TrEMBL record:
Entry GO MF terms: uroporphyrinogen-III synthase activity
Spans through the membrane: none
Leading EC class: lyase
InterPro entries, per database record: 4pyrrol_syn_uPrphyn_synt_sf, 4pyrrol_synth_uPrphyn_synth, UROS/Hem4
Pathway(s) the chain acts in: Porphyrin-containing compound metabolism; protoporphyrin-IX biosynthesis; coproporphyrinogen-III from 5-aminolevulinate: step 3/4
Pfam family, one: HEM4
GO biological process, alphabetically ordered: protoporphyrinogen IX biosynthetic process; uroporphyrinogen III biosynthetic process
Catalytic activity: hydroxymethylbilane = uroporphyrinogen III + H2O
The entry's keywords: Lyase, Porphyrin biosynthesis
Function as written in the Swiss-Prot or TrEMBL entry: Catalyzes cyclization of the linear tetrapyrrole, hydroxymethylbilane, to the macrocyclic uroporphyrinogen III.
Segments forming domain Tetrapyrrole biosynthesis uroporphyrinogen III synthase: 26-248
Protein name: Uroporphyrinogen-III synthase
Length: 265
């Protein structure tokens, strides 16, 4: 049986954007932890809007639109403006993206069983006839795995960048302060972008030696691979790629470590 407050006395860094951090913060608090919100990414409109308007203006010529994140859903409808009577079929990656889509009154026509690009596209291409036209709306840092696989399979996939991901200027000094003062016990990464921005900050301020005692948790394998590629030791990576599963696995990790006589404090 789990302790009432398994995260008591643990300070957990949340690196995702503040608009999407509410659920993770609540989960940490419910389990007795102290959430430290330092957003390592924020989102802006693309620099060059002409292509965006051109692609979205021709959306009726596509058979499918793919939305890869909650953020992608929000920016898609923001940029779409006056919504057309009927959109193409909509494919999403992940349950959170599906929920975000429902907020705009639309239901996803395709949701994969695995919430990463490789799993998504391996399932999705089996539904496509040769020559099917697909529009992939994504952020500037997203990989090209999906479009490449669709094109190789004989369908046509165009990509359009509908938002940019950047490091908030105000977050860097706050992060440096927390790291230098050993104020963080656990770091949660919810995307490769948060990992990259964190590591860039650590490198600029030469803070790598401060990370040895900190537990590293990643929401899924892509973020975990990014962290490992840059030398971070990932302690927690759940099988289900949600913040709820990540918090549950953090708790299990802590309990096992404490049972073995180790401690994070």
């Amino acid at each position: 049986m789990l302790p009432v407050q398994p995260l008591k006395d643990y300070h957990v860094l949340i690196t995702r954007g503040k608009d999407q951090a509410e659920g993770l913060m609540a989960s940490i608090k419910e389990n007795g932890g102290t959430p430290l919100l330092v957003p390592l990414l924020e989102f802006t409109l693309p620099d060059h809007m002409e292509e965006v308007h051109q692609r979205l203006g021709a959306i009726h010529t596509y058979d499918w639109i793919i939305l890869t994140s909650q953020n992608g859903v929000d920016y898609f409808f923001k940029l779409l403006g006056k919504q057309p009577i009927m959109l193409p079929k909509i494919a999403v990656i992940g349950s959170k993206t599906e929920v975000a889509l429902k907020r705009y009154g639309y239901k996803a026509d395709f949701v994969p069983s695995e919430f990463v690009a490789e799993g998504f596209v391996s399932e999705f291409i089996t539904t496509l006839a040769p020559g099917t036209r697909v529009l992939l709306a994504k952020g500037n840092l997203a990989r090209s795995v999906i479009a490449e696989a669709i094109n190789e399979a004989g369908s046509s996939c165009d990509e359009v960048i509908i938002y940019h991901t950047v490091l908030p200027a105000s977050s860097e000094q706050e992060l440096v302060h927390l790291i230098k003062n050993h104020a963080i016990d656990i770091i949660t990464f919810t995307s490769s972008s948060t990992v990259n921005h964190f590591l860039q900050t650590m490198e600029r301020h030469e803070l790598g030696a401060y990370l040895d005692r900190i537990v590293i948790a990643c929401i899924g394998p892509i973020a975990a691979k990014t962290a490992a590629r840059h030398g971070l030791s990932v302690d927690v990576c759940p099988d289900v790629y949600t913040t709820e599963a990540m918090v549950a696995d953090i708790i299990l990790f802590i309990m096992k470590r404490n049972t073995k006589g180790g401690t994070l404090q």
